[in-house]
Amino acid sequence: MTSPRLIKGGLVQVDVKSGRTLRTIALQYNPDSLSRTMQVQAAGESGGDRSQALRIMGAAAETIKVEAEIDATDRLEHPDQNRTAAEVGIHPQLAALELLVQPTSDALQGNDSIARGGALEVLAIETPLLLFVWGPNRVVPVRITDLSITEDAFDAQLNPIRATVSLGMRVLTVDDLGFEHRGGQLFMAHLRSREALAKQAGSAPPSALGVKEL
């Protein structure tokens, strides 16, 4: 009997206009846990209007936290086959994650040129659409809110060879992106997927909770 192929969680950068995949970052090891928090966007939170008590303003504000490990130890046992790891450790993997929260050098240089040209307003730099992928049932547009890297071990040249990465993300909804945006469409597809999965859970009768029919 063959074991099922283990898929990896990760992040995908997508060009908003063309939909072309720019970069896929697969986590080396799937984290043991994933933490999610959902804050309801309720109407009438300040109180006073009873007609608003059951109304929701929009999609819940969801945040996701994951902690992943990156380790070059196994690759360093065979340096001839893994020259990059032998020369710079896990610098490339860490740099790929760091650049998810940084504008490109070209974009910064371009904005500087615009400002030097006398522009009264320089627009904020737009980054590619970022997707968090955790299996086929969870593909959501996100913004990274915080990135923490703890480098745990180094080689003789002080290249990091083992690190723990903590990623904080906020799911972007149609309230953030709009319905026509590629990311908004992906969020709606994700929401419909959750609705379909919820139907599979069924519904228990009130008697299961020790109460009569309500």
From TrEMBL:
Q: Give the top-rank taxon of the lineage listed in the UniProt record for this protein.
A: Bacteria
A Pfam family assignment: CIS_tube
- Sequence ranges assigned to domain Contractile injection system tube protein N-terminal in this UniProt record: 21-168
Specify the protein name.
Contractile injection system tube protein N-terminal domain-containing protein
Species name for this entry?
A: Microbacterium trichothecenolyticum
